[in-house]
Design a protein that fits this description.
The chain is of the alpha/beta class. The chain is built from 14 helices and ten strands. It has a six-stranded mixed β-sheet, with helices on both faces. Helix 1 runs parallel beside helix 6, helix 6 packs antiparallel against helix 7 and helix 11 crosses helix 14. The protein is elongated and about 65 Å long. The termini are far apart.
Length: 315
């Protein structure tokens, strides 16, 4: 008996990002090696104003959701400001209730979160928008490190390129590693990327920062190689350790020693990118002592190892 193709709808919202739309549309296009069928739809059939200078003409409206078994929600402009139309939110909820799988790419997570289906669940989005997603939808457990999150029938991914990671993950779920690897080869993409999106964020230090103890923070950045303690920082700021710690957390969202650790990781990233120093040497230069200590904190904060980071980002 011939196996029926898995049906996929790609939702194009106003301001839709071209790459986010194109990734699932291309990966799941029907071919002998990929048993899928794709329809691109919008809130209504017809023209949709896209983002980045492109517009779309979609053949289907929300009725495509009743046909689809998986619905992709690509990212769109101003997600932290504009909710999708109520009809779209209702249609996504209805599709989920009848068993459809919902997968958001990048800022499409905001549209998915507007349905309430991410409440109490882990989710991710592009690192630039993780704080906005957390503030706009406080019941969502936002993970800013990972490339994608699979919560069964609802999935989210980070920036646009991680939409490829998410799509290949779904192919693996549906048809196994061989089919996923074949799809990756067609895309000239990695079948599986190690680490999370934290390694792509320009800095591990929290931004923006307030003015409280700014001079002490700058002093600390110039002395990272030394064994800094809370007492050292408080002494530089001429306040008690207790006062320093309390006001520092209020200003940055991190304890002083958490902030120092992230500053050391940022310096280690810079050394790994622009020098040939070994891991042990880098650890000593940034005040983390040993290579093992550097690897431990690098993995915890960036989701990858120093050697993998250097391989990816070294000039």
């Amino acid at each position: 008996m011939t196996r029926r193709n898995h049906r996929i709808a790609v939702l194009v919202l106003e301001g839709a990002k071209p790459l986010d739309v194109g990734i699932p549309a291309q990966i799941f296009t029907t071919r002998a090696s990929m048993p899928y069928e794709v329809r691109v739809c919008g809130a209504h059939p017809g023209p949709v104003t896209g983002g980045d200078g492109l517009s779309y003409h979609v053949a289907d409206g929300l009725e495509a959701f009743a046909w689809a078994e998986t619905i992709f929600i690509p990212g769109y402009r101003h997600p932290d400001r504009d909710d999708p139309p109520a009809a779209v939110v209702d249609a996504l909820r209805t599709a989920h209730e009848r068993g459809a799988r919902l997968a958001a790419i990048s800022t499409g997570a905001f549209a998915l979160a507007a349905t309430g289906l991410l409440d109490g669940r882990r989710a991710t989005t592009h690192w630039h928008y993780t704080r906005a997603l957390r503030e706009r939808h406080p019941l969502v457990d936002v993970d800013e490190n990972v490339l994608f999150v699979d919560e069964g029938q609802v999935l989210t991914s980070a920036g646009a390129a991680s939409g490829i990671d998410l799509c290949l993950h779904l192919v693996r779920r549906d048809h196994g590693v061989a089919v996923s690897n074949h799809a990756a080869r067609r895309l000239v993409a990695a079948p599986y990327r190690s680490g999370g999106q934290a390694q792509y964020v320009p800095r591990a230090l929290p931004e923006p920062l307030g003015d409280v103890f700014a001079a002490t923070r700058q002093w600390a950045l110039e002395h990272l190689q030394e064994p800094l303690t809370l007492d050292d920082l408080a002494r530089n700021a001429t306040v008690s350790p207790r006062t320093f710690s309390r006001r520092f957390v209020e200003d940055t969202g991190y304890t002083p020693m958490q902030w120092i650790l992230r500053a050391r990781i940022d310096l280690a990233r810079e050394l790994l990118e622009r020098t040939d120093l070994g891991v042990e040497q880098v650890a000593a230069e940034v005040g983390l002592g040993t290579g093992a200590n550097l690897r431990l904190h690098f993995q915890r904060i960036l989701g990858t190892s120093p050697s993998e980071y250097r391989h990816t980002f070294a000039a």
